Each structure stands twice: as C-alpha cells, then as structure tokens.
Amino acid sequence: MNAHAPLPRPETGCEIRQERGQRAVFCGLTGIVWLHRKIQDAFFLVVGSRTCAHLIQSAAGVMIFAEPRFATAIIDERDLAGLADANEELDRVVRRLIERRPDIRLLFLVGSCPSEVIKLDLAQAARRLTRTFHPEVRVLSYSGSGIETTFTQGEDACLAALVPEMSRAAASAAPSLLVVGALADVVEDQFARLFADLGLAEVAFLPARRAGQLPAIGANTRILLAQPFLAETARVLEARGATRIAAPFPLGAEGTTGWLKAAADAFDVPAERFERVTAPGRARAAVALDLHRERLEGRRVFLFPDSQLELPLARFLSREMGAALVEVGTPYLHRQHLAPELALLPAGTRIVEGQDLDAQMDRCRAAQPDLTVCGLGLANPLEAEGLATKWSIELLFTPVQGYDQAGDLAELFARPLKRRARLEV
Length: 425
Ligand code: SF4
Known about the structure:
Blueprint: E1 6-7, E2 15-19, H1 32-38, E3 42-48, H2 50-60, E4 70-74, H3 77-80, H4 86-100, E5 106-111, H5 113-117, H6 122-133, E6 138-143, H7 153-162, E7 176-180, H8 185-198, E8 203-206, E9 221-225, H9 231-239, E10 243-244, H10 252-266, H11 271-296, E11 300-303, H12 310-319, E12 324-330, H13 339-344, E13 350-354, H14 357-367, E14 371-374, H15 376-384, E15 389-391, H16 394-397, H17 406-424
Parallel strand pairs: 2-13, 3-4, 3-5, 5-6, 7-8, 7-9, 9-10, 11-12, 11-14, 12-13, 14-15
Antiparallel strand pairs: 1-2
The structure holds iron/sulfur cluster (SF4).
Iron/sulfur cluster binds near residues 29, 51, 113, 144 and 145.
C-alpha cells in the first residue's frame, strides 16, 4: 500500500492521510514539566542520561522552583557497559532522595531511551522499592522514552500507571464522573464549580492533586477526557468497567460547551438548567474571542504534528476564529476519541497522521501559511524563512481549557501575527 495514500473515511468530510518517515517531536519526558506541578506530593525520577536531564531542565527552565519535584538518576558509561549493578545504584539514589525529601508520597521512576537500551526493568524496581518504603511512599513506573513515546504520551503513560492504584467502587455506588487529564488548578476549579452548578454530586479528577486522593472506579464511573492524548489511560479505565463519554475537547467556547453538554446529557441534566449554568461563561468567552477574531479571520494556518491537540485546536481556529486550515498534522489519530472533533472540522480538511518531516516542510514552504503551529525545533528555521510560528508546547504549559481561558487561547495564536505585523511596519 502506498504510505501516503489517503484512507477512505466516509464518516467525516476530512481527507485523512498517513505518513511515515523522519519525525521531529519531543519525547514523553516533557510531560513531567506540567505533571510535577499537578500532583503536589509526587516526585518524578528520570532514570536516564545527561541528555534527558538537560531536556527536562531546559523545558522546565521557564519556571524555577525552590525545590523542584523532578530529578534525573544518571545512567553513566559503567552502567551502559554492564560494569555496575544499575538496580543497586537506583536503590541507593531512591533511598537518599526519600531521606532528604520526607514530603514525597508518590515516586515515579520514569524510563528513558538509555534505561530501555540497558533493559532496566523499572516496573520490577518500583515493586521492590514499594515493598521497602511502604506505606509512606508508593513507587510506580512508566516510560517517557523517545523510542516509545512522543511529547504528550508521557502524561498518558503516567496516568495509566495510576489506574491500578485506584480502588474498586462498590457496585451500588452512585454514578460518578471522572474527568481525566491534567488541567491547571485554576481550570479544574472552574470546571468543578460548573459541574456542581449542573447538579453533579460525584465528580473527581485524574490526576488528583495529592497521591492519596485517587478516586475509586467501577461500573458506575463515567469518564470524560479533558485531553485528546490519553488513549492508554482511557483503555485501562474502561477495562476497570468505566464508560467513556464521547465529547469534543474543552478548547474554545464551542468545545467547552460541547464537552460540558456531553457530561450533562450523560447525567440527565435538564436542558434549561444547562443553558442557565453555562450562559455566563459562554457570554464571557464570546466577548474575549471577539477581541482576537479580526487578527485570525481568514488567516491560513498549518499545524505540524506535535502535541495531539492539533485537531481540537484546528476546529477552534476554523469555527470560532474564522481561520483557514492548510494542513492539520497529528502524531496519532485516535479515531474514536477524536470522532466528535472530526465531525466538526470543515469538509475537505487535510489531516496528516504521523510524519515525514522533509515532505511536510516542503508542503509548508510551498503553502506559505500565515501561521505555523509547530515544535521548538522547527520554529526557528521557519521563522528565519519569514514564516510566523507558534510553539505548540506553550499550549500545554498555559491554561487554555474552558470558557474563561478561550480568549487566552485565541491570543496565543494572535500574538505571533501581531508581532510580525509590527516588524513589517
Ligand atoms: Fe533523549 Fe530519549 Fe532522554 Fe528523551 S528519553 S531526552 S529522547 S535520550
């Protein structure tokens, strides 16, 4: 089969293609930068190389913490050559860390390319260390390696590792909603208030802010994904009996309304109550979006595959800001989770799953879009060629979900265009 052939997708009007080739995306270690802020008593210990340490340091460099909750246990040449017992060294590092930081309740051993190369079994190490430090500290493991994960898949792997730790809800438990995906605390609080106003009594978030607050899960749990990159987490939650609520993602006013409405319908919230509760947020978002529409309307946007947020972002840019979509790349396309987004994209939208970097760069250069959304590595060369770019990583570091952040989301895209307009003047 031709690797670039469009796949027939009669259920959407989009033209979906798959590409394979050289990729330019961050590895899953990057997720630690936002996850360590979210789970307040967790610590992320990357078992990796100096390269891994540099990646995290520079990705997190924008926010300096007095006591960061992540570090790297460096695998050096002796470990790689099999001259030292890596497990013994790891145990020593963990013991020192836990003695120094008694506030840690949950420790993640995060695998990397080097730990995979030497086949260090971190799952087994986590079980051994849990036995040693239980009950004060639980030790879990997941992989953030660039061989296995891209950028946002680190969060997916981390949350999936938490699921076996969740207790089983009683069969008679009241129906509950579990919102899945790390959201900034301010956004989580806004959504918690909206769900309470809608009359949903049992609402929990994964990840919880503290390690000991993991909610129970069972057949009466409905899960609502807050992020589009949580395929594995959703799979293991469903395997525990939970049911996923199909919904668009809460980016922009329309996405937020669709997302809340899907939850409201699943819990039989009357339409009148839904309208009343969401009207103020919708009105605030409409005012905020108006401020940026002129800058984005009619602008041609090219999205490189990076964060897996590309489809919801493209839907927002096109439907709420009037932008034209040249190409929408995504590292992976989960057709079930993204079905409500695919249905909202304009007919004929070119979606490219995977990456063949050179071919994609050629298409981007040929199209000369007004705005290119891409990873850090591509932004500088494209800027040097005269194209305006937006770093996709910013969309993970900035609170962008919900009604009150819709204006900020639009501004993130409007800003590079404004800057370029000033430079041209
Ligand atoms: Fe590089 Fe792999 Fe370490 Fe990521 S995990 S920083 S890709 S060596």
